[in-house]
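Tokens as discussed.
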């Protein structure tokens, strides 16, 4: 079982909760690093191969096998810390607000959207601590609907319940929740979802980091149908260990032209902002699924690591 599969089971979430709730930060971080190291040594596992593939592409195909191995382990340690910080502090409102820095310009950006009376589709790449950011915004009084992964089984159900109980309206993506999200947008509200997890059944290949990828475009279609802009938001971890919220300017959707071309064009305009964020924080990009599977054969392989180490050390 991979780390992704474990965390997405009910028992995996319960174990993560127990560790986070029952340990102080100095110990919880150490346990998280140990778990990350354990899975990081399983180089034949899909988890590590996927991380290496994704890290290789976002590096401009420049990293060698040794550097990819290090980059993948960095991501695992980052994810372990994210989970610990959320589960340990989710019922500590003051600590959540201390950990998540909400700059005045970020709040101004949201307030502008509220004052406009127009809804906003908010999308987030898998950088930093999505759940902790949502908890902090809910504590500040912001309300929004979160569209989560449609396969709401096992750990996903428990995760969504934990989010909802703490002020986040987390709804698995289905016909009912999408309809609700459209009404919210038309009423001037916020809808939030992810943007960079591959969707193998997508009919709209988009260019992402210079290569075609099958990524979700439902949020683009929804924004076009409701006439609202898309805003890219990130919650990355700063050098001081706290999390910083950042929002890009809302992107109005193009509406003149062939529908399929517009969907791809609008998606790529939004993804360009995600590329900038991911390039700034590659070690925090927690994408465990292969975004560019067509490039598998080109990625430096783990068994080349010894050769890469020799080259790197001279």
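Sequence:
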């Amino acid at each position: 079982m991979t780390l992704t599969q474990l965390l997405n089971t009910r028992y995996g979430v319960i174990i993560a909760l127990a560790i986070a709730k029952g340990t102080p930060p100095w110990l919880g971080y150490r346990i998280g690093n140990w778990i990350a190291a354990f899975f990081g040594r399983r180089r034949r596992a899909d988890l590590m191969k996927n991380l290496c593939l994704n890290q290789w592409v976002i590096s401009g195909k420049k990293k060698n096998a040794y550097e990819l191995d290090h980059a993948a382990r960095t991501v695992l340690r980052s994810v372990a810390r994210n989970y610990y910080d959320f589960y340990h502090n989710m019922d500590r409102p003051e600590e959540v607000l201390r950990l998540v820095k909400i700059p005045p310009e970020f709040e101004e950006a949201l307030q502008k959207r509220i004052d406009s009376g127009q809804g906003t589709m908010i999308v987030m790449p898998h950088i930093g601590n999505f759940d902790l950011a949502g908890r902090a915004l809910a504590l500040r009084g912001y309300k929004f609907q979160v569209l989560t992964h449609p396969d709401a089984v096992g750990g996903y159900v428990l995760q969504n319940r934990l989010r909802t109980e703490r002020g986040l309206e987390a709804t698995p993506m289905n016909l009912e929740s999408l309809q609700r999200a459209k009404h919210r947008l038309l009423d001037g509200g916020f809808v939030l979802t992810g943007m960079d997890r591959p969707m193998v059944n997508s009919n709209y290949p988009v260019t992402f980091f210079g290569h075609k990828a099958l990524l979700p475009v439902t949020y683009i279609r929804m924004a076009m149908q409701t006439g609202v802009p898309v805003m890219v938001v990130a919650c990355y971890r700063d050098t001081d260990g706290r999390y910083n919220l950042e929002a890009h300017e809302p992107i109005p959707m193009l509406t003149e032209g062939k529908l399929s071309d517009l969907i791809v064009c609008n998606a790529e305009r939004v993804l360009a902002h995600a590329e900038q964020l991911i390039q700034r924080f590659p070690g925090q990009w927690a994408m465990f699924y292969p975004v560019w599977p067509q490039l598998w054969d080109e990625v430096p392989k783990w068994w080349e690591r010894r050769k890469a180490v020799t080259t790197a050390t001279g």
